[in-house]
Amino acid sequence: MITEEMKKEILKLDAITSLEETMFTGEIAKLNGLGHITKDWEVFSLLGRIYKYGKIQGIRQERAKKKNKKALANSKLAKATIQSIYIIQ
Fold first, then answer.
1. Each residue of 2-56: pLDDT tens digit?
2. N- or C-end of the chain: fewer Cβ atoms within 10 A?
3. What's the angle, vertex CA 14, arms to CA 10 and CA 16, rounded to 5?
4. Nearest Cα to 44, choosing from 22, 15, 27?
């Protein structure tokens, strides 16, 4: 389901989607037998925005994974430190 926030973000992507990204999506369309749609710039541009949105979402997911791994490592370190303090006392 696409939320209103997602819709707004996708519309903003038009300004930052590069020509290379748009051309890349057009090539994918051609490989899938949809070359005729690449003649319509609006559809072509839409494909570029969808590609860019997916790319950004992937980056966000990777950052979240790294953040969670770091938080987990920090909590394990804190737990080990607390256990060490109790052992020393």
1. 788 888 887 788 778 888 888 888 888 888 887 776 677 778 788 888 888 888 8
2. N
3. 105
4. 22
Residue 17 in contact with residue 46, Cβ under 8 Å?
A: no
| 3-state SS, residue 80 | helix
Distant-in-sequence, close-in-space partners of 9: CB < 8 Å, separation ≥ 6: 53
Distance between CA 12 and CA 15 in Å, rounded? 6
Tell me the whole-structure pTM to 2 decimals: 0.61
Helices (H), the chain: 4-12, 19-31, 41-88
The pLDDT confidence band at residue 89, using thresholds 50, 70 and 90, is: low
Domain boundaries, the chain: 4-88
Give residue 37's identity as a one-letter amino acid code. Answer: I
- 50 burial via Cβ count (<10 Å: 0-12, 13-18, 19+): middle
